[in-house]
Structures are given as C-alpha cells and as structure tokens.
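User: Run a structure prediction on this.
Assistant: Running it now.
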Amino acid sequence: MKKLLILTFAVLMASCNQTKIAYVDIEVLMKDYEGTKALETKMKAKQELKAKELDSLTAPFQAKVQSYYKAAQSMSPQKRAEAEGALQQEQQFLQAQQQQASNDLQKETQDNYEIITKTVDSLVGNYAKANGYNMVFGTSGKGTVMYGDEKLDITKQILEVLNKDYSKE
C-alpha cells in the first residue's frame, strides 16, 4: 500500500512539473486594448451628442421659466397655478428624458464591455491552447494572483494579438 501511495505521489509530482501556467493582468490588458479605447471614444462621442440633444430641449424650457418669473407678478393666482403646473410637467418630462438617455448609454456601454470581455476570454483561451498553457490566471493588480514570476506574465503577448486582431476589423 505504501508503495502504491509513493508511486501515485511520484506520478503526480512528475505531472505537476509539466504543467504550464501563466497569468494576464486584466487591468493593463483592458486599458491598452485598442478595442477598449475605441469603445471609450465612441461612447464619449455618443454621450456628448446626447447632452447636446438634451440641452436643445432644456434651453427652451429655461426660457419659459424666465418668462414665467417675469410675468408671474401680473398673473392671477389661477393663471399662475396653471403655468406652474405646465412648467412642472415639462420639467418632469425633461428629467425623464435625461434619465432614459443615461440608462440607454449605460446599457450600451455595459453590452459593449461584455462583448469585449468575451473576445478577450476567447482569445486568451485560443492563445493558451496554441502555446501549450494548461492554465492562465486573470488578475487585477495583484488581487487574484498574489505572486507571479514576471516570466509567467503573458499580458504583453495577449495584448499584441488582441490589438493585431482589432486592427484587422
């Protein structure tokens, strides 16, 4: 029985020596990936465009508010209440538009990041298989991998392949 345990232990130790492991710094990868940079630029442009659209709706409302304050003193209480109600309704509409725009942009950004994450995961898997890695860890800073020899860090290689693939698109 002892011989069987020793033999099993020896086989396990021998197989451990053949395991090829690496890690990828996800923060560096996502920061330097051209796809992420393009997404950030695209979403910033969309955000600015949406802000301009909302500003074009807000400017007339602000003019109505100014006009109301100028005329409020000469209005009857009923007219003033009607005008305030109309302004309040319009303000609620504008706030709803702003909230909807914010939600839409946030969802689109999240959806695009999910696509990028799937692309990165797929590429890392293919890279690992093609280069004989048995396991590739992902880390953010040093949170997941407490220590890794720099020789095991394949972030630069993965980033080169990702950016090369992205430039083909």
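The chain has a mean pLDDT of 85.
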